[in-house]
Write the C-alpha cells for this entry.
Amino acid sequence: MPGVGIIGYGYWGPNLARAVVEVDATALRAIADFSVAALERAGRRHPSARLLTDWRDLIADPAIDAVIIATPVSTHFDIALAALRAGKHVLVEKPMADSVAKASVLVDEAARRSLILMVDHTFIYTGAIRSIHDLIESGKLGDIYYYDSVRVNLGLFQRDVNVIWDLAAHDFAILDFLVKSRPVAISASAAAFLPNSPENMAHLSVYFDNGAMAHLNVNWMAPVKVRQTLIGGSRRMVIYDDMQTSEKVKVYDRGVELGEGGESLRERLISYRIGEMWAPAISGKEALLTEIEQFFHSIENASQPPSGGESGLRVVEMLAAATRSTSLRGQPMELGHLRNVS
Amino acid sequence: MPGVGIIGYGYWGPNLARAVVEVDATALRAIADFSVAALERAGRRHPSARLLTDWRDLIADPAIDAVIIATPVSTHFDIALAALRAGKHVLVEKPMADSVAKASVLVDEAARRSLILMVDHTFIYTGAIRSIHDLIESGKLGDIYYYDSVRVNLGLFQRDVNVIWDLAAHDFAILDFLVKSRPVAISASAAAFLPNSPENMAHLSVYFDNGAMAHLNVNWMAPVKVRQTLIGGSRRMVIYDDMQTSEKVKVYDRGVELGEGGESLRERLISYRIGEMWAPAISGKEALLTEIEQFFHSIENASQPPSGGESGLRVVEMLAAATRSTSLRGQPMELGHLRNVS
Amino acid sequence: MPGVGIIGYGYWGPNLARAVVEVDATALRAIADFSVAALERAGRRHPSARLLTDWRDLIADPAIDAVIIATPVSTHFDIALAALRAGKHVLVEKPMADSVAKASVLVDEAARRSLILMVDHTFIYTGAIRSIHDLIESGKLGDIYYYDSVRVNLGLFQRDVNVIWDLAAHDFAILDFLVKSRPVAISASAAAFLPNSPENMAHLSVYFDNGAMAHLNVNWMAPVKVRQTLIGGSRRMVIYDDMQTSEKVKVYDRGVELGEGGESLRERLISYRIGEMWAPAISGKEALLTEIEQFFHSIENASQPPSGGESGLRVVEMLAAATRSTSLRGQPMELGHLRNVS
Amino acid sequence: MPGVGIIGYGYWGPNLARAVVEVDATALRAIADFSVAALERAGRRHPSARLLTDWRDLIADPAIDAVIIATPVSTHFDIALAALRAGKHVLVEKPMADSVAKASVLVDEAARRSLILMVDHTFIYTGAIRSIHDLIESGKLGDIYYYDSVRVNLGLFQRDVNVIWDLAAHDFAILDFLVKSRPVAISASAAAFLPNSPENMAHLSVYFDNGAMAHLNVNWMAPVKVRQTLIGGSRRMVIYDDMQTSEKVKVYDRGVELGEGGESLRERLISYRIGEMWAPAISGKEALLTEIEQFFHSIENASQPPSGGESGLRVVEMLAAATRSTSLRGQPMELGHLRNVS
C-alpha cells in the first residue's frame, strides 16, 4: 500500500482520511492544514499520523507516496504541481483546477513522470452510476440520445465559485464516464439573484458530435432538493433519482418507433412501446471507499483510473466553456480547441 | 349571448363545442368540417347545429357572431382573417399562427374592427395558474426570480410542428400571464432523434429585462410524464405539479437572505429561511368553461381577455425566436424587434 | 351473442350499458328503471333499446337471455331470483346480496337451472390484478404470507351500507381470486364518526388455514385517497398501487432467509435478500369490457367465470362475518359454517 | 447537572452517551458493559468516564446521580429496580419492562422514593410529534377520531421480542402522549412467517372510551420501509410521514359535515370540505438531545417528564394486552384492569 498524506482537513478532508483508513489502516501517514484547530481534530481521530501546518513539509516527506488534496479550488494547481514534481501520485478534489491551462499543465506533468493523477469525482464510483454504466456498455439502452439532469436545492451558496463549477462539475464527470461520443459545443445561461454574488442558477446544453444532447439544470435557490436525471436511449430509458433511498435507478422499456413506409415522416406510422420497468439491485458500498481503492489500484498497477487527469481536464474545459457562454447569453462555445488557450 | 360557430371538429373541436353548450345551451349555431364523418359525429351530439362542409359558409352566416377555430395551425391565419373581415369575433386554437407576421396581421385586423381576438391558451384559465397569479399579484412571492418548467412525456409526436410549437407554447402563454417584466432574449437548443422528423426535445432559456430568467424543458421522448414548474421569488417559492390530483400548487416559505455587513459577499452572512409550506385550495372548475365564459364576457363588454391577440402574438414571437436559436446552437435571439420582420 | 337487458340506470348502469354495446353493438335489447328521467337519458344514448319502467316486464321479454342488475343492494335478491326463475343468466352488481342466506339461495337456483350467475367484482378483471394473479400462479412470489390493503379516501359516504360492504367487498373478491388457501376466521373493528350513520372506518383481519393473513383498512374519512396493497410472498413481494397512472404493480425480489444451523432461531443466521424490483407491463384494457366479454363467454360455453356465484357467496360470507365481529370489538368469527345459517 | 452513568454500550448505548455529552460535557461519569470490547470502544470516545464490567459497581458509585439503562429488555427490571433502591434517577430504554407487574413495581418504587423514572420513548421528543401535539392542544384538529399508523420495513428481526414489543411500542407511547381519551380495549392479530420465530407482522386496534379508535400496522417483512400515520380530527386531518426528509407533517383542512335536517342520516345532506393543506415548519433538533435535556430538567425540578414511568407502564399494559389478543385471534382485551394482575 502507498503511504498517503492528506492536505486540507476542513469540510471534506476528514471524510477522505476516514476512507483511507477504512481501506488500509496503515496507509495514512500525514495530515497538513494551516489551521491548528483542524490539526487537533485530525490528531484525535488519527493519532498515528504526522500533523503538519505547512503542506510543503508533507510533500517533502519521503514516507509519502501519494498526496490527497482537499483544499480550496484556487490552490489545487500549486499544491498538485508541487506534489507531482516531488514524484508523488495525486488525488485532487473536484474540479481539478480553476482553468483549462492549469489543468492541462497538471496532466502533462503527471504523464511526463508516469504518476497517477486522479480527480475526486465521487459520483462515478457510486453503485448507481456504475449500474447505469453497465447498462450502457451492455447495449441495453441502445444509442444514447440524451442526458437530462436536474441538480437543485436551497443553498449551500459557495463564495468562491459559481453554481456551475460547484454542481455542474458532477454531471460533466458523469457524462465523461458514461457517454462515449464527443461533446463539441456548449450553450449556457445563468443568473445571480443575490447582489455581488456568483451565479446561483444555470442551464447548460451540451452538443455531441453524433447528435446526442445533454442538459444540466443547476440551482442553489430551489425550494426543494432534486437530484434527478433522465437518460434517453434508442432501446430503453433511465430515470436516476439520487434522493430515493432505494430504487435509485429505474429502467423503462419504452420508446418510439417508426414503421416502414414512405420517405417522409407523415407517411410512416409512429408507434410507442410501453413495456416493463425494472430497478436493478445496486451496490450500497460507500463510493468514497471504492474511489480510494481505485486510487491505490491505479498506483500499484500504473493504470489510468476512470476519473484520471485527462477526464478531469475535459471536465474543466466544459466548465470554462459553459461559464463563458453564460456571459454571452447562451452563445455556443466550441469544445476541443480550448486546451491550449486559456 | 353571441351566436357561435365552430370550425374544425377533429380532436379538440368536440371539447370546445361541449364547453360552449355547457356555458349556454343555445349559443352553438353551426359546425364546419370538411370531413363528412366528423360532421355526422357532430350532428349526433348537437342536433340543432347547422352542419357545413365549407368553413366559408359558416363565416357567411349572419346568425354567427363569433367563430371558434380548431383546425391545423397552418390554416389558422386564413380562416381567422376571413372571420375578422366578416365582422366575427374569433377564438383560435394555440398557437395563434405559424409566423409572427401572420399573427401581427390578425392583431391589427381585430384592433381596426374592434373585434375580440382571443387564443385558446387553456392553462391560464385553470385553477392552478389562477391561484399562482393571485399569489404573485398579492406580493406573497416577492420579486419573481425564475420560472423553471419541465413538460415531458412519451409522445404524442406531432407531424407538422416541433415540440417547441406544441409544448413550449403553453409555458410562454403562462409566462405572459404571470410575469410582468419584459422578455428580451431567448437562447434555445433542440434535437430530433427520429430521422426526417421535427425536433422532439428542446431546452429554452428566456432572459427578462429585470434579470429574471425562465427555462423550459420540453420533450416528447421521456420515459414518464412530468408537468412540473418551479417558480422562485424573493419571498417565497412555488412548485406547481400538474400531475398531482390534489395539492397541485405548493408554496414554500423558503429563501436565502444576505445579512448586513461589508461590501463583498464574502464578508456578509448568508442565511437560509426554511418555514412552512402550504397548498392553497384550488378551484376544480374545468378550465375550458372558464375560458368560454371569458370569451363571451369579452365580447359583451368589449374588454380584452387575458389570452387576447396581443398576448398570442407575443407567444408566437417567442416560439419563432426559440426555433431560430435552436438552428444556431443556442445563439441568443433578441425579442421585441421581430414583430414587423417575421 | 345473448340478448341483454339492464335493470337500473342510475350511477353504474350507464357504464354497464356502454360496455355491453362496446363489446357487441347489437346485444343491448332493453333497459329498465322506475325513473322516467333515467329512461330518457338511456333512450338518448341507446335509441334502439326497449325502455321499461317495470323490471318485471324486462324479465318477461323473450328476447332477453341475460339480465344485468345495477340496482341498490337491498333489491338484488328479489330481482336476481326472479330473473333466474325466468331462465335468464344474471350479472349482478357487488355485493351479490345483503345476507348469506339470500346469496346462497341465488347460487342454488342458478346451479339447479344451469344458468350463469356472475357478480360485478370489476377489480378482478383489471390488468393489475390479472398480472398479480399470473405472478402467483407462476410461483414467482412463492407461498403467499400476507395481503395487506389500504383503501381509504374522503367520502363518498353511503347511506344504506357501511364502509365494509362498500369498500372491503373489493378486497374480499380480489382475495378470493388470488389466494388459494381457505379463510377460516375474521376479526374486525369499526367506528362511525357521524351520528346515526353507518360505520365509516374499519380494520379487518382474515386468518387462512395455512397461517397466511389478510388485513384490510377501509375508511371514508381519510384526508387523501389511498389504494395500496402489499402482498408478501416467500420468494418475492408486491406493491400494488392503484392510484399510480403507470407502474401500478411493483415486484420486489426481497425477503428474509434463515440460515442453516441449530434448532432455535437464536442460533441461526437471518439474512435479508434485497434484489431488483420490476414493474411488469400491464394491459390498459378497460376492466368492464373484459368483464362483459367474460360474461358472454361463460354463457356461450356454460363455464364458470372467476367472479361467479360461488365466489360472490364467499364474499358475502366474509362481509357478514366481519360486520358481526365489529359489533363485538374484534371477537373472531369463524367462516365456513355460516352458509346455511344466515 | 446530575452525574450520569450508562449501563449497556451495545447498539443504542453509544448514542445515549454521545447525547449526554452534547447536552453537558461533564455529566458522563461512568459506563458499564460486561463486554470488554464494548468498554474499549467506550473508552476511546469518552476517556474521562469510569469503565466498569459490572453494572452493580456503577450503581454503587456515589458520583452517579442518574442511571441510563440500554440493555436487553429482559434485564431492565432488575437493573432499574436496583438503581432506584440505590437512590438513582433512571432513564430506561423502551419498553420499560417485559411485564405489567414489573413495570408497576418500578413505578411504585420511584414514586415512594420521589425519584425520576423515565422511559426512552424517543419519538415524543421529535419535532414532528411535538408539532402534532401542539396542533391537537390548540384545538385545530378538533376532536380526534382516529390514529392510523403503518410502521413496516424489511427486518430487523428481533430474536427476543416480537414485532409488537419492538415497533408498536413507539405508537403506544405516541398515542399516550397525543390522545387524552382513555384506551379501554385492544384487539390484535399477528402471524409469524419464519419457523420458531416471534411474530413478525401484527395489526392492532385500540378502542377509546369516547369512541375514538387507533390502529397500528407493524411488520418486519415488508418490501419497503413505511412510517406513515393518518390522524383524523373533526376539524382537520394530519398525515405524518417520517420517511420524508421535509414536510413530515401535513395538515389537511378537510372533513365531512352533516347538514341540518331530519333525524335520520338519509334525510340530511352530507358535504365534504376540501380546503388548503399546510406543512408547519418543524424543529430539526435531534430528539435524543431534547430527551436528555428533559431528563435533566425533570431531575432538577422534580417534575414528571412526558414519557415518565406512569406513561411507560400504560405502554407496557397495551403491549401485553395486544400480545394476549393475538393468541386468541383478535379476542378483545380490556385495559385498565391488568395492572395488578400480570
Notes: Residues 124-284+319-334 of chain A form a domain with the Dihydrodipicolinate Reductase; domain 2 fold (CATH 3.30.360.10). Residues 309-326 of chain A form the longest helix (18 residues).
